[in-house]
Write a structure and sequence with these properties.
148 residues; mainly alpha; three-stranded antiparallel β-sheet; 2 helices
Amino acid sequence: MAKKKTKVIKSSAGLKFREDKEKSFYVGISKPDEIRRSLLEGARDLVTYLQRYEKLKELRNEKLEKIQEAKSLVKEINSLILKLRREFPKTNLKVQVREEQKPKKIQEVEIPKESIPIPKPDIRRKQVTDIEKLESELAEIEEKLGRI
């Protein structure tokens, strides 16, 4: 019997093949544990990347749903505002914005801290003044309504 000429080819992954003129087939693997470990690590990484990608897709879908929900709420609010404006009577009253008075500039004088008594703020008086302001504004509004 005549032997066929074969040629051994080594791949970069450490695989050995015999090349026959008729066909190529698997012969052996050098360091199979390392190759198996690298393949399994690659598969594990691929699975984790796919899982992260799926989570990302879910987040994008949730984001789009929330955006659509927000858009529908804004449309509903705008339509309710339009209905409300139609129901209100038309008037020529405009809101007046009061400008705050700017305090005058005071010259700074250094005084020792020990000689200055620190007054305690009277919280009740401050609340009363706010309440009084609101009551006076309410009285003004009621007076304007009485004139109409």
